[in-house]
Amino acid sequence: MHPTSYEPILAERRMRFDGVAWDESYEIFGAWKKTLFNEDVFREIAALIVKHRGGPAEQLFAPLKGSFNVILRMKFLDGGSAIIRFPAPGISVFPEEKLIREVSVMRFVEHNTSIRVPHVLYHGTTEESPAGLGPFIIMEYLENDSDVVDALNIPGRSDDDRPILDPNICEERLRFAYGQMAEILLQLGRPSLSKIGCISSNEDDFEEWDVTHRPLSINMNELVQVGCVPEHLLPQHPFQTASSYFLALAEMHMTHLFSQRHDAFDSEEECRSKYIARCLFRKLARENRLCSYENGPFKLFCDDLRPANVLANSQYNYAVVGAIDWEFTYAAPAEFVYSPPYWLLLERPEYWEGGLDDWARAYEQRLPIFLQELQLREDVAIQRGIISEDDRLSKHMKESWENGDFWVSYAARRSWAFDMIYWAKIDRRFYGPGNLHDRLDLLSQEEKQEMEGLVQKMAEKDL
Predict the structure, then answer these.
(1) What is the residue-averaged pLDDT of the chain?
(2) How many angstroms separate the CA atoms of 67 and 229, rounded?
(3) What is residue 276's predicted lDDT score, i.e. its pLDDT?
(4) What are phi and psi for residue 243, nearest 5 degrees?
(5) Alpha-carbon span 363 to 374, nearest angstrom
(6) Interatomic CA distance for residues 390 and 256, integer angstroms
(7) How far is 120 from 82, CA to CA, in rounded Å?
(8) How many whole angstroms separate alpha carbon 245 and alpha carbon 211?
(9) What's 33's DSSP letter?
(10) Interval 262-306: pLDDT, tens
(11) 36 in helix, strand or coil?
């Protein structure tokens, strides 16, 4: 089965976040910040870091906010530093779960790979935190002055702008950056696990690891934060097979459409097209047509592993010093790990100013370079007996891009990008020629009735 050259039935745009829910989440975060920015609280935080790191302190730096967390760094007189990190309330909607899962993954990576991650000194509960700020991790600070994005981004681009790969980047710098990222992916992809989900181990024994919890993803966090999806409607357990997980992802897309209260669509026609796309994707999942590795191997996959989270030192040609932000990492279907990384262009396809086809054209110029660098590292690992020929990621990534599996896995993971990718890259591949009426005929009578009920609900809401 191969992608076709037919024009897509629809040219859908990226779905918008619920603007009201977005504002509400940042109101929660704003109230939390008022608690944080207090001299007495800062003193308590400093004392807590010193307690678990040890040594005379020199300076506590001002808080910094990332995508999902707030960190405070403490510098010590011996030259080292440690940080305390809190999930940002309102933005991180599963703070305790996210933190505990991340600690497990960081310890796994620390004990089973040579990828450098911050060493966890301590993690605690909301009850242990200053002023009840929330669960926290105290960890080693990795000295750096940049990240891999700085090596790849358009020069002079503001930190407030989304990064984009410099179209004029010299190939030597590109290969060096890609090669370092490839090494991380290769090492992360080596271990195989028994199920799909988050891992854990006995606190006293980091040799035995198992999948014991549901796969916690960025998409799940966003579905609750800015998609209005009730938490109890998300997956609550690990998955035994790839097809069962793909079906759960398809069901999440449908739940999202019914849950988001604002900004999901602008017309009855758009509502119907979004419903039809989700029904047809779910149909493919039910027929087990979305995955080829039903029983694994299941591999560790990090939703947030990208150049911005790989720290570097610019004075050494942006040599990597470590990787951070592992909270949304879980054992995933092989299809996820076997897909080439979207971040080769830094920007996601759904945000690319020139559209999906232009993104794909630019991507195809860079993918061979990344795969060559990955192959070089695979060659070394095979020569050393670390992996076998069958363990090559490069071969699978090339196939995933060529046969369109890249788009299936991406659409499955990205709810707000789903519609534009489904119609542009998935629908024709599986369902061939035809128009929207033909696709409507593939729905059951119950699904058609449900669709009209959704349209009616939208109309009543707008009255």
Answers:
(1) 95
(2) 20
(3) 98
(4) -65, -35
(5) 16
(6) 38
(7) 10
(8) 14
(9) H
(10) 999 999 999 999 999 999 999 999 999 999 999 989 999 999 999
(11) helix
Which tokens sit at 371?
């795969």
**In whole angstroms, what is the distance from residue 174 CA to residue 130 CA?**
44
Q: What is the DSSP string of 46-114?
A: HHHHHHHH-S-EEEEPPPEE-SSEEEEEEEETTS-EEEEEEE-TTT-SSHHHHHHHHHHHHHHHHHHSS
* Residues 264, 257: Cα–Cα separation, whole Å: 7
Rounded to whole angstroms, how far apart are CA atoms 235 and 278? 18
pLDDT at 90: 97
Nearest to 222 by CA among 106, 92, 372: 92
Residues 232 and 224: their CA atoms lie apart, in Å, by: 10
Pairing assessment for the beta strands 298-302 and 192-193 based on DSSP bridges: antiparallel
**Separation between Cα atoms, residue 327 and residue 309, nearest integer Å:** 12
- How far is 65 from 24, CA to CA, in rounded Å? 18
pTM, full prediction: 0.95
CATH for 21-145, among 3.40.190.10, 3.30.1330.10, 3.30.200.20, 3.30.70.100? 3.30.200.20
- 333 secondary structure, DSSP code: -
Q: Hey, what are 179's tokens?
A: 């090669």
CATH 3.30.200.20 residue ranges of the chain are 21-145
- Beta-ladder partners of 298: 193
Can you tell me the mean pLDDT for 134-147? 97
Mean pLDDT of 3-32: 90
Q: 382-402 b/e with 16+ CB inside 10 Å = b? A: eeeeebeeebbbbbbbbebbe
Give me the percent of the chain exceeding a pLDDT of 90.
93
SS3 call for 86? strand
Interstrand relation of 310-313 and 319-323 (parallel, antiparallel or unpaired): antiparallel
Half-sphere exposure of 324 (CA within 13 A, CB side): 26
The residue whose two tokens read 């759960």 is: 248
Tell me if 446 sits within 8 A of 379, measured CB to CB.
Answer: no
3-state class of 329 per DSSP?
A: strand
Which band of pLDDT confidence, cut at 50, 70 and 90, is reported for residue 462?
low
Per the listing, tokens 């600690």 go with 103
| Beta carbons of 82 and 120 less than 8 angstroms apart | no
Listed as own residue / partner, the contacts of 363-366 with beta carbons closer than 8 Å and 24 or more positions apart are 364/401, 366/165, 366/174
Torsion of Cα atoms, 212 then 301 then 326 then 99, to 10°: -20
